[in-house]
Amino acid sequence: MTRSGAANAPWWRDAVIYQIYVRSFADSDGDGVGDVPGVRSRLPYVRELGVDAIWLNPFYPSPQVDAGYDVTDYRGVDPILGSVDDVDELVRDAHALGLRVLIDLVPNHTSSEHAWFRAALAAPPDSPERARYIFRSGRGPGGDTPPNDWVSNFGGRAWTRVTEPDGTPGQWYLHLFAPEQPDLNWTNDEVWAEFESILRFWFDRGIDGFRIDVAHGLAKDPEMPDLAGDYAVSGPAIEGHPHWDRDEVHDVYRGWRRISDSYPGDRLFVAEVWVQDPERLALYLRPDELHTAFNFGLLLAPWGADAMRTAIDRSIAALARVGAPPTWVLSNHDVVRHVTRYGGGELGTRRARAAALLLLALPGGAYVYQGEELGLPEVTELPDAVRRDPAFLRTRGAEPGRDGCRVPMPWSGLRPPFGFGPSDESWLPQPQEWAGLTVERQASDAASMLTLYRDALLLRRKLPALGDGQLAGLEAGHDLLAFRRDPGFVCLVNLGDAPAQVPQGLLPEGAVAVLASAPIDRGGQVPGATAVWYVWGEGDRGDSNPRPSGPQPDALTN
Ligand code: BGC
Ligand code: MG
Q1: Residues spanned by the domain of 69
Q2: Cα 65 to ligand 2 centre (Å)
Q3: Active site residue 475
Q4: Ligand minimally distant from the alpha carbon of residue 420
Q5: Residue 71, in any domain of the structure
Q6: pLDDT tens-digit profile of 154-212?
């Protein structure tokens, strides 16, 4: 459903997509690990939240070195998480509820346990088996030094040396992530053919689209030059980088787009691309390439009107040039949860409430990471012994890693695991304080984060201005961010700590506040760290008597 733009515009131009981290969503069998049947059992909750689609993190068979981003079989499901039949049933139920389903595709690397990699280890240098990966001889006497100085995203070097089948020290293979995640060679025809076949396998089963993992990493400079300090960071891409965001990756996506276009029903690709420049992001979204990409600008922006306005304006301008809708993200399974990024505690929660209204009022699509609708904070107190993230393990704890944003969902009850599953187990422990944040607790609380998300998502469906379309930035002054969307809608966010006057002339006569992230009063002031949605005239096609979140904006509307 699109609320603006052409009546037959594809669904994804303004979809809100709910990210489900399968192993932490709901456990059906009591082993303490969330699974596909667990997700299926909770689909009514997702539907009621009011989103359009779900994206599932990888569920494929995997040694789970990197929580499933190390895949051994791209056409299967890990027995810990369920079966292909379970996925089929999940897709069927989701569709019956009007929810689309995206799954995660990991094309940059396989697991080192993948049949292809095992075959590569068993085969000699220069064999077709090795050619599917990136094997090189080492430098220096005896080839003891890695082929170049590239570094792994998880710490340490990006090369591991193998022992040849005859027992001698052998070649090195590239892994931009863990050693158990060897990089595929995307100049190899077999690799291309295999992934095209994998896409068809899942499209044929009714999947609505794919999230493409590390989409900016597939192409490597064939010369394999040293970084030599020129690109000291292994993080977001810099132009000319030997392995991030190289122009050759675009050929892959042109091929994939031809496949998705051959299926009925607006199938979708969303690319995970970490680049600093929104202009580079836009290249992935040219009309014959991918449909959308995560736009991490807002996620990376610190709390503050200037930084956030700049991130928003730059993204919109760059993507408009290729005709692609922006998407907006505040959190995911790789970053510190935004309640915590924004300061934690009451302040962090208050800011996260305001950010939610900003997120859902911006043009285009939005991603909601499971648990952000509950206001879950990052769990910073996990004991080292339970941490699983290779980013933690490979840096011996120098990096805290990403386990703290992956703690299982609290559904109900007063003690861990809070209804996560039928047993007392959960693969990461939940804090006892989450008793106050369960779905059960929040569902009946008019002032809860969950109620705010539900109200905002409901209004987003009703108000004609929201979703796909344009925005007009409004001068609102220091600490205030304001924009208008047509017809008849303004979002005003006070990013300061102190209350601010609603600027003169910002709102036309008759504008009413339909939703606010914190109580507001009649005095024409917006409290600190608060966002408000106003509508008037044609824009007021929402519920004439909205159920505001918390004890609030009715003072203005009365
Ligand atoms: C995923 C991570 C994963 C990495 C390697 C990503 O960017 O989101 O969770 O560790 O790719 O596959
Ligand atoms: Mg389970």
Answers
A1: 10-46+56-93
A2: 18
A3: no
A4: 2
A5: yes
A6: 999 999 999 999 999 999 999 999 999 999 999 999 999 999 999 999 999 999 999 99
